[in-house]
């Protein structure tokens, strides 16, 4: 199979191994920092990855992704400070375990469950890839449009916060995606005279500003000395036999949940972790102790997390539809390197595709091998006062932004988006849906244009295509399901008052 | 809402107190959305609209900016009836971080990479009341070293390290 003949040799080449290692290492390093989640980490390291050749860049960014996820889990367990919503669930039981003095075990379980979850996710990815490619042959412009619309509709419905504001963010993201030269006519749109905007807003800059800078401004005052972190010896990390036994069912349950949710366009790993935990509440042997520091509560969400991350590459690589906001950033990175994701990717760029997948295996192995002994280092990083850390992050952002085009304009743009990002936090506006809209904007526009052209301008022809209708009906149902509690509340409220 | 009410609400917001009267947050969100949407909407016409079969550059932006404006109106109107919180603004961190980025943008052209990094760290440190001069200098030195290693040596980027001002 191509995986072994093409993928493994590519992934095991010295360069790519190095990038994988670097990605996992840097990802964990930055992911450990409180408040910096995988999305922010990838944004910070994206400018660096631009100088690598495509396969290497993707291998590194993927390593950053699961490395940062792992780092975020460490912070969640030790400090109860999740870096991103997907680590928040781990913090529930993980932090309790830490209070019981079992932090080492919790972190170990995180690593192992992530590894298994990731492995299962990769297997699913590999086995489904050919079918997805076949299915996508039935996808025309209208179907792609519908699938992307599905992703955009789903994205705000699972983030916390007001759904309405979420959709506003998606729309604003779409709008920002319009900035730049129009593909069909060559007219510069919304550049307001600035020639530097002709190529549009760079995703790295948008992400670094909205996530990196805004996060820093928000965190400076609230980061008081992070509480005492105990030394974690290797021996303290080994779980008991009971732990091993307890760990198995939740890990597999979590992986299944993760695989399902990861593959859905628009639904990210956060939904996977919430659902995995919810499932544990109903099916786990130890369900009564969930929330008080139980192995199940750590293993399931972590397995779900990693499985979702891996399977999210399925729609992203093969259809060009990102599985989540983080995948959207990866997609952006792909496109910057000139790689067009889609069904042709597997056949036209087998080295990239299979090499990347093989690197997932290797990356997950590196993650476990590397990070268990190095836990001590990560823990001591948490001891560094935030006062010293954040100027370094700001410099990283500035230099990264400048290095994109050696133009100070880009640094000013980071400033602008940092300011906007902070404003968004104050106004309780979620940045992730904006990013989704931004990355998908140009593609949705193009597919919409083409679809309408082929449908002679008639929207109903478009909607009556079978696949389109199915996708959009599902989206509508899901929105309805989500809005149900609010609607029933209103109805009941109306009746009683 | 009288001018006095608006004024005191605004002042309370600035001072960082939580006031729960007519979800001000949502009204602001709605207002900004309406503003953004309208500007982009009006601008989209100058790119040409065309028809649904022959879309010109302005068609899609017109639709989306219209959507943004509509959502803005809905959120603002909802804000008139709901109640919500107002988050206090961290003025000092905000000013320091913004300032440090500005300094970097200016200094990198004038003085080169390393001075820009050092000045940036210095300016950023002002944002936290618990910063002290000695640790800040150490951080500046470490970061300069790191940046030099990663960007100038590792990635071999052609950025002038130190420029004289002639």
Notable characteristics:
heterodimer, A: 497 residues, 23 helices, B: 166 residues, 6 helices
Fold and architecture overview:
The complex is a heterodimer of chains A (497) and B (166). In chain A, 76% of the residues lie in helices and 1% in strands. With 497 residues, chain A is mainly alpha-helical. In chain A, helix 3 (38-49) packs across helix 19. The relative contact order of chain A is 0.18. Helix content of chain B is 68%, strand content 0%. At the A-B interface, helix 8, helix 9, helix 19, helix 20 and helix 21 of A face helix 2, helix 3, helix 4, helix 5 and helix 6 of B.
How do the strands and helices of this protein lay out in sequence?
The complex is a heterodimer of chains A (497) and B (166).
Chain A: H1 2-11, H2 14-32, H3 38-49, H4 54-79, H5 85-99, H6 103-136, H7 141-158, H8 163-177, E1 180-181, E2 188-189, H9 203-222, H10 234-237, H11 241-263, H12 269-283, H13 295-311, H14 313-319, H15 325-336, H16 344-348, H17 350-371, H18 375-381, H19 386-405, H20 408-426, H21 431-454, H22 459-463, H23 466-496
Antiparallel strand pairs in A: 1-2
Helix pairs in contact in A: 1-17, 2-3, 2-4, 2-17, 3-4, 3-9, 3-15, 3-19, 4-5, 4-6, 4-13, 4-15, 4-17, 5-6, 5-12, 5-13, 6-11, 6-13, 6-14, 6-17, 7-8, 7-21, 7-23, 8-21, 9-19, 9-20, 9-21, 11-12, 11-13, 12-13, 15-21, 19-20
Chain B: H1 3-15, H2 24-45, H3 59-81, H4 91-110, H5 113-125, H6 133-154
Helix pairs in contact in B: 2-3, 4-5, 5-6
């Amino acid at each position: 199979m191509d995986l072994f003949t093409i993928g493994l040799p590519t992934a095991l080449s010295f360069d790519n191994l190095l990038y994988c290692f670097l990605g996992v290492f840097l990802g964990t390093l930055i992911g450990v920092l409180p408040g910096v989640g995988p999305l922010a980490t990838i944004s910070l390291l994206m400018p660096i990855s631009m100088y690598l050749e495509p396969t290497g860049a993707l291998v590194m960014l993927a390593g950053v992704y699961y490395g940062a996820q792992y780092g975020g889990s460490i912070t969640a367990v030790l400090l109860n400070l999740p870096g991103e919503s997907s680590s928040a669930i781990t913090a529930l039981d993980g932090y309790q375990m830490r209070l019981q003095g079992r932090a080492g075990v919790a972190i170990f379980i995180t690593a192992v469950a992530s590894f298994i979850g990731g492995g299962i996710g990769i297997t699913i990815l590999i086995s489904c890839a050919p079918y997805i490619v076949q299915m996508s042959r039935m996808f025309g412009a209208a179907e792609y449009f519908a699938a992307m619309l599905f992703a955009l509709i789903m994205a705000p419905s699972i983030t916390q916060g007001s759904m309405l504001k979420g959709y506003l963010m998606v729309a604003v993201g779409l709008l920002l995606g319009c900035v730049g030269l129009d593909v069909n006519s060559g007219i510069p749109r919304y550049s307001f005279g600035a020639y530097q905007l002709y190529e549009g807003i760079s995703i790295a800059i948008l992400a670094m500003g909205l996530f990196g800078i805004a996060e820093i401004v928000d965190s400076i005052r609230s980061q008081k000395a992070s509480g005492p972190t105990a030394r974690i010896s290797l021996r303290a990390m080994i779980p008991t036999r009971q732990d091993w036994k307890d760990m198995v069912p939740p890990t597999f349950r979590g992986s299944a949940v993760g695989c399902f949710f990861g593959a859905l366009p628009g639904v990210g790993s956060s939904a996977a972790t919430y659902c995995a935990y919810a499932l544990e509440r109903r099916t786990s042997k130890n369900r009564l102790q969930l929330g008080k520091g139980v192995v199940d509560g750590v293993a399931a969400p972590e397995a779900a997390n990693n499985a979702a991350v891996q399977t999210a590459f399925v729609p992203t690589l093969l259809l060009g539809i990102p599985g989540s906001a983080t995948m959207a950033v990866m997609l952006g990175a792909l496109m910057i390197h000139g790689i067009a994701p889609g069904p042709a990717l597997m056949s036209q760029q087998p080295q990239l595709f299979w090499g990347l997948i093989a690197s997932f295996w290797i990356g997950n192995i590196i993650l476990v091998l590397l990070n268990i002994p190095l836990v001590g280092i990560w823990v001591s990083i948490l001891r560094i006062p935030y006062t010293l850390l954040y100027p370094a992050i700001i410099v990283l952002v500035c230099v990264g932004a400048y290095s994109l085009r050696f133009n100070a304009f880009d640094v000013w743009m980071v400033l602008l988006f940092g300011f906007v990002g902070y404003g968004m936090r104050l106004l309780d506006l979620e940045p992730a849906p904006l990013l989704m809209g931004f990355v998908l904007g140009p593609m949705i526009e193009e597919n919409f244009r083409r679809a309408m052209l082929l449908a002679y301008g008639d929207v109903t022809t478009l909607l009556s295509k079978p696949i389109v209708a199915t996708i959009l009906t599902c989206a509508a149902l899901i929105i309805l399901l989500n809005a149900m509690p609010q609607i029933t509340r209103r109805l009941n409220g109306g009746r009683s008052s | 809402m009288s001018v006095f009410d608006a004024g005191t609400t605004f002042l309370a917001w600035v001072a960082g107190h939580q006031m729960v009267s007519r979800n001000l947050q949502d009204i602001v969100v709605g207002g900004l959305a309406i503003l953004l949407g309208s500007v982009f909407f009006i601008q989209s016409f100058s790119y040409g609209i065309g028809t649904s079969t022959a879309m010109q550059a302005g068609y899609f932006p017109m639709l989306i900016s219209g959507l943004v404006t509509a959502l803005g109106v809905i959120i603002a109107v909802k804000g008139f009836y709901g109640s919500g919180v107002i988050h206090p603004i961290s003025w000092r961190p905000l000013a320091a971080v913004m300032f440090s980025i500005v300094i970097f943008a200016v200094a990198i052209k004038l003085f080169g990479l390393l001075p820009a990094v050092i000045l940036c760290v210095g300016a950023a440190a002002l944002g936290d009341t618990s910063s002290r001069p000695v640790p800040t200098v150490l951080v500046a030195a470490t970061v300069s070293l790191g940046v030099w290693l990663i960007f100038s040596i590792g990635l071999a980027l052609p950025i002038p390290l130190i420029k004289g001002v002639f």
